Amino acid sequence: MFELPELPLPRIFPFGAILFNFLFLLVSIPIESFILNSRLRFDRKTSVFYAIAINLFSNVIGWIIFFLLDPVLPIQVKSELINYIFFDQLRSSNVQSLLILTAFIIFFGTFIVKYILLRILLLSLAEFGKAQPEPVVERNSRRAYKNKLQNSTVVTSILVANALSYSFIVAVLFIRSLDI
Fold first, then answer.
1. For the stretch 54-68, what's the b/e string if a residue is b when 16 or more beta carbons lie within 10 angstroms of its beta carbon?
2. For residue 108, what are the contacts with CB-CB under 8 A and spacing of at least 6?
3. Tens of pLDDT along 82-104?
4. Residue 133: what are its φ and ψ, rounded to 5°?
5. Where are the alpha helices (DSSP H) in the chain?
6. What angle separates helix 95-124 from helix 75-87, to the nearest 10 degrees?
7. What distance in Å separates the CA atoms of residue 136 and residue 141, rounded to the nearest whole number?
8. Percent of the chain beyond pLDDT 90?
9. CA atoms of 24 and 173, how far apart (whole Å)
10. pTM (two decimals)
11. What pLDDT is stored for residue 136 in this prediction?
């Protein structure tokens, strides 16, 4: 009489992977907002906003890429991935080199995505209503140098922030793997 219809929900749900993803966001957002605050001279509120935005968007993009690549993975890699996500174990020793290569690809891919997202956010939130005075030729060279310097500062700041957040994530994974 009061039966609920069966929903096609999975019988096993990877709560551990979801919670660690949430933990990684909680670790990386404060670190990256501190780096954005100190290196790019944003105020605290703006640096936290940018750190949250680039981390959440890069996380969503990463999961989308993962779910697009999952169907084309070989069966052995899928099996190892499922075994690692649900049971926190790697059965095969040759998968560890693939895991290290994948970690480097993920690091640099995340760096590129975060840089592109920050540039998009900076451009979209810039004040377009300001009238620019006509620059003198001398000012053009200074402005071009300043823009080049600012662009390299954004690149190095994102690289440092990404490296520090990934270092702390690796430290958390290492502490978790210890049998204490």
1. bbebbbebeeeeeee
2. none
3. 787 777 777 777 777 787 888 89
4. -70, 155
5. 15-39, 44-69, 75-87, 95-124, 137-177
6. 80
7. 9
8. 33
9. 10
10. 0.75
11. 46
